[in-house]
Write a structure and sequence with these properties.
Blueprint: E1 65-67, H1 79-87, E2 91-96, E3 99-103, E4 115-119, E5 124-130, E6 135-142, H2 147-164, H3 185-204, E7 209-215, H4 219-223, H5 240-249, E8 264-268, E9 283-287, H6 288-294, H7 305-312, H8 316-332, E10 335-338, H9 339-349, H10 355-362, E11 374-379, E12 409-412, E13 415-423, E14 428-433, E15 436-441, E16 446-449, E17 453-457
Parallel strand pairs: 1-3, 4-7, 6-11, 7-10
Antiparallel strand pairs: 2-3, 4-5, 5-6, 8-9, 11-17, 12-13, 12-16, 13-14, 14-15
Helix pairs in contact: 3-8, 9-10
């Protein structure tokens, strides 16, 4: 007796906010001349599987970046192909940050348009490079925020040193960099980080054009709506920029009751019926209940005078982007867009709010196959602080740059370790990893990756079992 075939219970429930799932009816079924379809495949009826979404239902790979023999970037390949090229001695590893190989023979480059999208910001940078059918790289950069503190420490050290040189005349007008258009050191560092990231990506990818989101909103148009143009009073973008500005300014919470995760409305602190203006200094975000209770009262009469003070505070992030946005596009030769347009397109695609997803939308991404995102951190390249842990010796400054620096990755006995520090005039190194900490001679380790500057993670790093030499990569 044949065993009866057991069928899984069919799940017919579909949430209202679920994306569209491709049906199992082929176009050939609509033809009258045939009743059979060859090779017909029925996709899953699981409503959580989105076959049209760029971030669901597709297998994401971490690509390996390839340079031609002349150093020009090519289209990335899969890790399996890179492994074959390395084992066949047709390529060599030149970098592991991110993992990049260079061909030992000349390959004709494929002509394919690659658009790089940059979600610029004050603390984070999102990036994504897409073609017509797939995403090549994406991720997020965490920008350093310790520059002002380090500058204060540097000023303290200099002031202390000057106080000891009593014989030297005071010099106050000896600064040669006080030029018009000069940025503050912290702003200059953030601008240079954007530029370094774009240059880094262009060295490993044949980027055709770059699009940068310079700001989420235009504060000049916020202060004077009369100059905003007719596009902000009519059409599908009406009110989109102002709403995004207020949501960011008040942290997406009701300014009166503090509720979050509820629908929020634009609220006039001084009602329009009492000649309240439409400028952003008179606008806030509140829930529907508070907006109705407030009715025709001002914020002070409603019992919230502090809201007026919050409305007058400028946004530091927006001020930064307004300061450097045109300089950024000018130095990189890029196109620009605004954040409220990115948000509208991202919501229409059903993507979550991340910097990588924003950059994907900025680059023109729609249904391309996504890739695993990188998380990039920054490490300072030099540490000029005074060394004070010298027992029996006076404090000193390390003036010689050793071959290994803290944060570097080295290889010892077929294991990877992180460099903690160096001593004995650069002849000994302290390494840590796998629960072990050792102090050994520098001749027993091999450099795998520098730990300074922009650090990409995760990374595809082949092991020695693959027969790949990792010596000399950076």
């Amino acid at each position: 007796m044949k065993e009866k075939q057991k069928l899984d219970r069919r799940d017919t429930y579909t949430p209202t906010d679920a994306p569209q799932v491709r049906g199992n009816c082929d176009h050939a079924l609509n033809r009258e001349e045939t009743l059979s379809v060859h090779g017909l495949k029925t996709p899953s009826n699981n409503p959580h599987v989105d076959l049209l979404s760029p971030v669901g239902g597709h297998k994401a790979d971490m690509p390996v970046f390839i340079l031609n023999d002349d150093g020009k970037p090519l289209i990335p390949c899969k890790p399996a192909k890179a492994r074959h090229l390395l084992s066949d001695k047709k390529a060599k590893v030149i970098s592991s940050n991110p993992f990049t190989i260079q061909l030992l023979w000349h390959c004709e480059g494929n002509v394919e348009t690659i658009t790089l999208g940059i979600d610029s910001g004050y603390k984070h940078i999102g990036f994504s490079a897409v073609t017509d059918n797939k995403e090549l790289i994406s991720g997020e950069v965490v920008i350093r925020t310790d520059i002002p503190k380090l500058n204060e420490e540097k000023a303290m050290y200099r002031r202390k040193k000057r106080n000891k040189l009593w014989y030297r005349k005071p010099r106050f007008m000896n600064r040669g960099n006080n030029k018009e258009g000069r940025f503050a050191p912290s702003i200059e560092h953030k601008l240079e980080t954007h530029i370094r990231l774009i240059e880094k990506l262009k060295r490993i990818l044949p980027v055709s054009n770059t699009v940068i989101e310079v700001a989420s909103f235009d504060t000049q148009k916020m202060k004077n709506p009369e100059i905003s143009g007719i596009e902000y009073q009519q059409g599908e973008l009406q009110g989109y920029e102002i709403r995004e500005y207020l949501l960011e300014k008040f942290h997406r919470t009701c300014v009166y009751c503090g509720k979050t995760g509820v629908p929020l409305e634009i609220e006039h602190l001084t009602p329009r019926s009492r000649d309240g203006p439409d400028t952003v200094n008179n606008l806030a975000i509140s829930c529907h209940d508070c907006n109705q209770k407030k009715n025709n009262l001002t914020a002070e009469e409603f019992g919230y005078p502090e809201v007026r003070k919050r409305a007058l505070i400028t946004m530091r992030d927006a001020a930064f982007m307004n300061t450097v946005r045109w300089k950024l596009t000018q130095l990189t030769g890029s196109e620009h867009t605004l954040g409220f347009i990115t948000k509208k397109n991202r919501i229409s695609l059903g993507l979550d709010k991340t910097h990588a997803n924003d950059a994907f939308v900025i680059a023109g991404g729609t249904v391309q196959i996504r890739t695993l995102p990188f998380t990039i951190t920054q490490r300072r390249r030099n540490n000029r602080s005074i060394q004070t842990n010298r027992k029996g010796f006076r404090p000193s400054i390390i003036r010689k740059r050793y071959a290994f620096q803290p944060g570097d990755m080295v290889l010892h006995d077929h294991e990877r370790f992180s460099v903690v520090g160096m001593h004995n005039y650069g002849k000994s190194i302290v390494i840590k990893g796998g629960g072990k900490k050792m102090d050994i001679n520098t001749k027993k380790v091999k450099l795998v990756k520098y730990g300074k500057g922009l650090q990409f993670a995760p990374q595809f790093l082949p092991t020695l079992s693959d027969g790949v030499s990792l010596g000399g990569v950076r």
